[in-house]
Specification:
The protein is α+β, with helices and mostly antiparallel strands and about 180 residues long. It contains 4 helices and 4 strands; from the N terminus they run αααββαββ. It has 2 domains: about 60 residues; about 100 residues, Alpha-Beta Plaits (2-Layer Sandwich), CATH 3.30.70.60. Strands 1-2-4-3 form a 4-stranded antiparallel β-sheet.
């Protein structure tokens, strides 16, 4: 009888071990894998939230810097904007007291791999030397970048009302962002 009891006990232990390995251990492994997958998803969720916060911060920063960006587009615009050039140069001429006799704007030439293309403004002004200095000072204070590359001065001839006035020929370089 004790042998039967021992066999029955051993048989029950064997069945319990088989049931444990067949049923409980796979469930335990599935739970372990689910916890690992949950941890990976939580990490990805945290990373996603941090990326969303960074994008939001960048959007806020770009909104705060729109005035700076607008100033930069005034400094070096993406197009020539001849109307703005003519308007600003005639306004500067009026403020300084020189007469704007001629003004021509050439289309910017492609400079290859440069970030910007350069065009030339050719202008002729009539006035006194002090007025020219004031014109150049106002030109320097303008938001758009103008680079005076050539200046020639000569006396005016002929007209009676132009006595004492000088004839100024200016070549001014302007830059436009390259679209490449």
């Amino acid at each position: 009888m004790t042998i039967k009891k021992n066999l029955i006990a051993a048989f029950l232990v064997a069945i319990a071990t088989i049931v444990f390995f067949a049923l409980v251990l796979p469930t335990y492994d599935a739970i372990k894998n689910a916890r690992t997958a949950l941890q990976v998803r939580e990490d990805k969720y945290k990373e996603r939230n941090s990326l969303i916060e960074k994008v939001s911060a960048l959007n806020n920063e770009s909104q705060n810097k729109t005035s700076d960006i607008a100033i930069l587009t005034d400094l070096i615009p993406t197009t020539v904007q001849q109307d703005r050039i003519v308007s600003s140069l005639s306004s500067i001429a009026n403020q300084s007291g020189v007469a704007l006799a001629e003004l021509s704007v050439s289309e910017p030439q492609n400079q290859g791999n440069n970030l910007y293309n350069t065009g030339i403004i050719t202008t002729r002004l009539l006035g006194r030397y002090t007025q020219l200095v004031e014109f150049l000072n106002l030109l320097e204070q303008n938001l758009r970048l103008y680079d005076v590359s050539e200046l020639s001065i000569s006396e005016t001839t002929g007209a009676i009302g132009q006595a004492g006035l000088l004839n100024f020929q200016l070549k001014i370089a302007i830059n436009v962002l390259n679209s490449k």
